[in-house]
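note to self — DONT lose this again. spent like an hour looking for the file last time. sequence + predicted structure for the chain T wanted, 85 res
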Amino acid sequence: MNILCDYQPISCIDHERLEFAVLKRQKLRLSFRDEAGEVRTLTVLPTDVTTRDKAEWLSYRPEGEVAGEKFLRLDRILRAEPEGQ
C-alpha cells in the first residue's frame, strides 16, 4: 500500500495553528502515529509546513537532538499543543 495515496487533509484550523507555531517559533508537544502505527509524543520546534508528494508535511527539530530536520505527515498528528500547556 502506498502511504502517500491515502493522505487525509487536516482541518483548516489545525493547519493554521501549525503555521502559527512555525511563525512564532513556538515549541509544540506532538502526539502522532509513527510509520509502524505506534503512538509517540515529542516536544519539537516546528520549522515549516509544506506540500509535497500529494500530502502536507510538518518539518521540525526534536528537542534535545542535534540531528537535522525531520518530517511528519500532518494527518498522522493526533494532538499538537504549545509546550507547557
